[in-house]
Amino acid sequence: MKYVSTDLSHLNHAVDLKAYEEKVKEIDAQIKNKTGKGNDFLGWVDQPIAYDKEEMKRLKEAATYVRDNYDILVVCGIGGSYLGARAGIEAINGVHSTKKPEIIFAGQTLNPDYIAALLEYLKDKKFAINVISKSGTTTETAVAFRLLKELLEKNIGLEMARKSIFATTDAHKGALKTLSEKEGYVTFILPSDIGGRYSVQTAVGLFPLACAGIDPEEVLRGSAKAREDTSIPELMDNEAYKYAVARHVLYKEYGLSTEMLITYSPFLVQFGEWWKQLFGESEGKEDKGIYPTSATFTTDLHSLGQFVQQGTKSFFETVLHQKAYLKDVEIPYDEENLDGLNYLVGKNMAFINEKAFEGTLKAHHDDGKRDNIVLNVEKIDAFGIGYLFYFFERACAMSAYLLGINPFDQPGVEIYKKNMFHLLGKPGY
Ligand code: PA5
């Protein structure tokens, strides 16, 4: 059984996978032998099986301590240093979780209203902080952390604050590393050969997930299974590579330069954010790349649906189709039937969501002439989310290499920072 299968039968354009078999084998060998562009950052390839078992033990103990002693965990990080954790937590715990601790995100914005409101919210609460930064110098994260740390120290004193702060950073260098050592924070490592957006299978993602009550080893088991399945060099047997080649062909041969990741779950909105960063920051270089965007159906069928059906034809859809859900609800009988819904009595929401998926797929493909790649996913639980993280990481590396691009750097991101530092008067800028 394939945990994720790539269905290319809903495309309107012809995609000849066979023509890419040799090229894919070549790139697969580059990934495994670390001979491609950016090969210093391929630590994520084996991370699901090669992870530090000793650190995992410490991480789980620390997470238990946080769960037992705090009402809130503030995860302070930006980009690859928070999107994976947020995506995983929301995918499993949902959007109205009452689990303790509540997980809140900071360090991902410079917006004063957000930060002021957060400090106000935390003022009288019992909170811990997980500050995450590989470089240790990211302004958004550093500024928020300084403010949060000050509040914590004011609330509970220096010594207790030190016990309530958990840092995830580079093993050897950076301002956060120095600060953590000086203050004696419990520290977790982001290995040097893993970049931010490929780091969800490290403590960057796993510590917040564990604090949220999600088994980090089950997430890694999912990733490890995906690693096994996506390490097959034969394109026709590798679902992640099939997906990578299909999107590459739609872009290169047919000029479809936008990809919409479609889910049918509000729990996966943040997964869409993680996916957008993964593909956007990995591929958008040298005037190339597919613009990644995401939508939640059926919600967005009532906002974007018209455009998708009949608007400009410059995009394709990639639909995450869940075959099973975490929970389900049945439609009850109503004597009066004033809403006219008694035809659905006894049916559950999974059935209705499925029919919405089928009807939409047919509308977009047959009438709208849109190309739809359908990724059938067994179930999005802890194992499933781990599987999906790795599936897309591997597909993204293949996809960027097909374009001749280094998937692991982000030179363009530095330009806004330089301008901002100059305007802020940072020494040296
Ligand atoms: O994917 C990336 O490398 C980036 O999104 C980084 O994760 C992000 O810029 C945060 O960097 P840092 O962890 O150094 O604070």
Account of the 3D structure:
This protein is an alpha/beta fold and 429 residues long. The chain has 2 domains: 4-38 and 220-402, Glucose-6-phosphate isomerase like protein, domain 1 (Rossmann fold, 3-Layer(aba) Sandwich); 43-216, Rossmann fold. Helices cover 47% and strands 15% of the residues. It has helices at residues 21-33, 47-50, 53-69, 83-93, 112-122, 139-163, 175-183, 203-211, 216-230, 239-252, 269-283, 305-310, 349-367, 382-402, 413-424, and strands at 4-10, 72-76, 102-106, 127-132, 165-170, 186-190, 258-263, 291-296, 315-324, 372-379. The N and C termini lie far apart (55 Å). The model has no long low-confidence stretch (mean pLDDT 97). The site of 5-phosphoarabinonic acid has 14 residues, from loops.
> Number of DSSP helices?
15
Could you give the count of β-strands? 10
Radius of gyration: 22 Å
Which structural class matches the secondary elements?
alpha/beta
Bound molecules: 5-phosphoarabinonic acid
Estimate the helix proportion, in percent. 40-55%
- The CATH architecture designation of the largest domain is 3-Layer(aba) Sandwich
Cα distance spanning the termini:
55 Å
- CATH homologous superfamily assignment of the largest domain: Glucose-6-phosphate isomerase like protein, domain 1
**Unreliable stretches:** none
> In percent terms, what proportion of residues is strand?
5-15%
> Would you list the SSEs in sequence order as H and E?
EHHHEHEHEHEHEHHHEHEHEHEHH
Mean pLDDT: 97
The rough form would be described as globular
Which strand order does the major sheet show?
Answer: 1-10-9-7-8
Q: What summary fits the major beta sheet?
A: 5 strands, mixed
Count the domains: 2
Q: What is the fold named in CATH at topology level of the largest domain?
A: Rossmann fold
CATH class label of the largest domain? Alpha Beta
